[in-house]
Design goal:
Length: 725
């Protein structure tokens, strides 16, 4: 669900340009009125960025400053582009082009291909995976289904980063990318895939951008024609542009600077597809005279949710973290986030389903609740748990609402009834618009009560029920409206892909939840190995995982629940640990970040209601000052305070750590960081309790390394004292 659904469903078109500005906060108004020169909008989650940029376009159009046909607004998904078109239509700026990069490029390519190349544009390949499979087979490289999907993604990454097949292995090494197979093999498959496309006169979606870029670079007359058509550009989600999309944008612009970009580096979660926040972060360097506006007023989430979100970013590192935005909630206080630890995954799913059922019983609509997980494979246990609890759900990622067969059939039936008017016997007893719609849709499978269970029958009913609810909302806003008016509204929404919300709890991956929001969000499976995911090896990959969790947290308006399971199945070994990203934020955990804020709500054990005492601030053991820096918190003292570290002990610990790292085949910091070793050498613990109190010594490391560390601190050679033990 998007923020648009919380405003009036059918608002009146503003009467004037000034009326377009009504209701904007000072920063949003600044965006809306900055119509000349380059503009960079740094917009945090929930701060109304889409509202700001659509009102900017609409204000410019309504004030006569921008011609609708001269504006091109681009974003990354059909849903986002559809929402933008819908909002612009409601603001009286319906002639503006709002498209994805691919859609805009494809239209230009289709139009200019005969002039630039001659003949018809090659056929667009809908699914490249079959051709990749053939290329692999011809290279005598056997790929299973998962490898095939991964290799296809690698080819897509190579193309959007403008990497040719011969350069792919070097590009992988330079970017520290973890290729799914030997890079030279993928390079071979990539090269043959490109050859097969040429032989069969087909192009893929990445070629749409590459060919458009090629034509605009080579044909200045065509580039000039496009630049005469589009004179003002708006780019949403600018942190997600790839090098190829940035190059296309530069060619569209030429030597002009009428560009407005909107983004948030802290929501960069698609680097695996080639997206990079570098263009957003370097915008001011490229455009020294740019107007930069920061949107930090969060209208979506309560102060409790925002507090946790800010705490997550407070621990972040890297270039994106240097530009993080500190959100300020504009909502009334709400409940604290709830942290729950379960014994196993089925218990976590059942506990989540019970909580959801309780929320629905308390009045929270099912469509305003989401369960978000790291990978799609986690959904099955939640599907089962919700079905067992009698809670309807929908999986995010299904086909678009107006493309569903039942919705298309319903549209045909409603259109026919509207044409028939009073001659349709179905409508004899229907006195108002909602009852007319219910009567028509009853012939297509809609009933007053939903069918039992889940599956295709229930999915169909939910789609039709959404149309019924839409008709009821439409009739409330426009009491005089008839079936023909509703059909017109549905057609316009279908054209804008502005779908009503299907009622049911949403199950979705964190990646697919980007851009959405709900009243209640359950973040599940938050264990090390899943968050961050096991294959996140480099610092930047781990930081992207942190940003992914941040995106999940900021989807919640009011209720936020975070949970993890200690084992995968009942009776399994409780070896899992909660994600490191919540350290210092969830109550009772050691702080690893630059802030100790966040959390609240306590930790519940398996839904039993027991709560741990919340940990207070970390104080310097020398001067007593509150510590906020991660390194200082590990040392339990300010960097400037005198150290009483045993240098000889520190060196012995470092030698021992090197041996352990060699045996484990891991970097030394995976055993203990330098700061943790310094803290050990300063405190010289003589018991497991004292050692466990040092930041960076968790339960797993205490179990694995505790005996060795205590022996070294006691001045023993490792292996001494075994007989006494």
């Amino acid at each position: 669900m998007t923020a648009a659904t919380h405003s009036t469903l059918f608002p009146q078109v503003p009467e004037s340009a000034d009326a377009v500005l009504a209701g904007l906060d000072p920063e949003q108004r600044e965006v809306a009125t900055a119509l000349t020169g380059p503009v960079c909008v740094l917009a945090g989650a929930g701060t109304g960025k889409t509202r700001a940029i659509t009102h900017r376009i609409a204000y410019g159009v309504r004030a006569g400053i921008l011609q609708p046909s001269s504006v091109l607004a681009v974003t990354f998904t059909n849903r986002a582009a559809g929402e933008m078109r819908g909002r612009l239509r409601q603001l009286g700026a319906g002639g503006v082009q709002a498209r994805t990069f691919h859609s805009a490029a494809l239209r230009q390519l289709q139009y200019f291909w005969p002039k630039a190349v001659g003949g018809e544009l090659p056929r667009l390949l809908e699914r490249k995976i079959q051709l990749v499979a053939e290329a692999g087979a011809r290279c005598r490289i056997r790929l299973d289904r998962n490898e095939l999907r991964d290799v296809t993604s690698e080819i897509e990454w190579a193309k959007v980063t403008q990497t040719v097949p011969a350069d792919y292995p070097a590009a992988v090494a330079k970017s520290l990318r973890d290729a799914p197979r030997d890079p030279s093999e993928i390079g071979q498959i990539y090269a043959l895939y490109e050859q097969l496309k040429r032989d069969r006169s087909v192009i893929d979606f990445e070629d749409v951008l590459l060919l458009t870029v090629g034509i605009l670079q080579d044909r200045h007359d065509i580039a000039d024609q496009i630049r005469r058509q589009y004179q003002h550009f708006v780019v949403d989600e600018y942190q997600d542009v790839s090098p190829l999309q940035q190059r296309l944008l530069e060619l569209w612009l030429g030597d002009r600077d009428s560009l407005c970009v909107v983004g948030d580096a802290s929501q960069t979660i698609y680097s695996f597809t080639g997206a990079t926040p570098d263009h957003l972060l370097s915008f001011r360097a490229r455009h020294p005279h740019a107007t930069v506006v920061k949107l930090v007023r969060d209208y979506r989430s309560t102060p409790q949710v925002v507090h946790l979100a800010n705490g997550l970013l407070g621990q972040a590192r890297g270039r994106a973290a240097e530009h993080r935005l500190e959100l300020i909630s504009q909502r009334d206080p709400g409940p604290e986030p709830v942290y729950t630890e379960y014994g196993d995954e089925p218990a976590e799913a059942e506990g989540t389903a019970r909580r959801i059922r309780d929320l629905i019983a308390a009045g929270v609509p099912a469509g305003e609740i989401a369960v978000l997980y790291r990978v799609n494979a986690q959904s099955e246990v939640y599907e089962q748990a919700l079905a067992d609890a009698g809670v309807s759900y929908q999986l995010r990622g299904a086909e678009r609402f107006f493309e569903r067969a039942e919705v298309r059939e319903a549209g045909v039936a409603l259109r026919g009834a509207a044409r028939a008017g009073g001659n349709d016997a179905l409508l004899d007893d229907a006195d108002d618009l909602p009852s007319q719609v219910r009567a028509v849709l009853s012939t297509k499978g809609w009933t007053t009560e939903p069918p039992a269970g889940s599956g295709a029958v229930r999915d169909r009913w939910e789609s039709l029920a959404s149309l019924v609810r839409l008709a009821e909302d439409f009739a409330r806003v426009k009491p005089e409206a008839g079936l023909a008016d509703l059909v017109t509204e549905l057609d316009e929404r279908a054209a804008a892909q502005h779908a009503p919300t299907v009622q049911g709890v949403t199950l979705a991956s964190l990646h697919s939840a980007k851009g959405l929001e709900w009243d209640a969000v359950f973040l599940v499976g938050l264990t090390e190995g899943m968050m961050p995911i096991t294959y996140a090896k480099t610092d930047e990959q781990v930081e992207e995982e942190r940003r992914l969790l941040y995106v999940g947290v900021t989807r919640a308006r009011l209720h936020l629940s975070l949970s993890w399971a200690l084992s995968r199945s009942p009776g399994g070994r409780a070896s899992r640990r909660p994600t490191r990203f919540l350290n210092g934020l969830r109550p009772g955990s050691a702080a690893h970040g630059t802030r100790t804020a966040g959390g609240g709500g306590g930790i519940e054990r398996g839904g039993a209601g027991g709560r741990r005492k919340r940990r207070g601030p970390v104080l310097c053991r020398v001067c007593g000052k509150t510590l906020t820096d991660a390194g200082e918190m590990k040392l339990m003292r300010c960097e400037d305070c005198p150290s009483d570290m045993d240098e000889a002990l520190y060196e012995r610990l470092r030698e021992w750590r090197s041996e352990q790292a060699r045996e484990l085949g891991q970097p030394a910091y995976c055993v203990f960081t330098d700061k943790t070793l310094m803290a050990i050498a300063e405190t010289v613990p003589d018991s497991e309790g004292e050692l466990a109190g040092i930041s960076g010594v968790g339960g797993r490391k205490l179990e694995r390394f505790g005996a060795d560390v205590l022996a070294i601190c006691a001045g023993q050679e490792l292996g001494e004292g075994d007989e006494d033990d």
